[in-house]
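Ticket #4471: structure export looks truncated?
Reporter: QA, pipeline team
Priority: medium

Steps to reproduce: submit the single chain below to the structure queue and open the exported record.
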Amino acid sequence: MVLARRLAPALALCTIGILGTFQYASASPFYSLAAPAEGADDFTGNVELGYTHLSGNTNSETLLGKGQMTWITGDWMHRVRGEVRHVSENSDTSAEQYLASFRERRELDGPHYLFAFARWEKDRFSGYDHQFTGITGYGRQMLDTDRAQLTLELGPGYRADILPGEEDERLAVAYGALEAGWQFSETASLEQELSVEETRKNTTSRSLTALDTRINAHLSLRLSHEIKHNTDPPPDAEAKTDRITAASLRYRF
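Actual output as written to the record:
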């Protein structure tokens, strides 16, 4: 299958996040919701913020903002997520990206579940005015221990590509995703997320690697590296592959 042939190079996108600043604009991944832990709170959330300002020989500014809320009702888990990124140099914007998404997870017997999500994203330099994606499918919790987790997902979907000055494109999507997490200690954890969205026009691969170091019960330092690769972007796109390396503070509530 085309999806299987293209999954191998997508997995090669996995890299470890290191401390740094934004390199390119990228849409952030949006993958599986982990099953709630025994006795987990019915409502949780977090806010993440990163900011850098340089002045003098170089005048640049970078801003990263993320937020999400998760709540549980019976066998259903719901999540709302939003993100914004902005990079400017000498008053010229070099990256501007927004994302909003909503996700549902329905627990089944055993390590199985059903999921559905909708995602809207706008990247000023991607060649698209904006994109809307809706996907539903089946997920399986392959590994779930105190130290490690591994989740796989597959499903069909739909994507609308809104192109400036051109006719909109509506595409069927074949989706596959993987999420893995490791808890090294009480204060340190690593997560890796990968996804592939295959259409007749192109394949979009996304990767997120994040290292969290907890400062206290609510605050942690996050080092992350994100990659987004589009095999055939619009002609106006700046590049096929976008990358972000960032350091930010994360507040959990």
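Status: closed, not a bug. The export was complete when the record was re-opened. Leaving a note from the reviewer for reference: The chain is about 5% helix and 65% strand.
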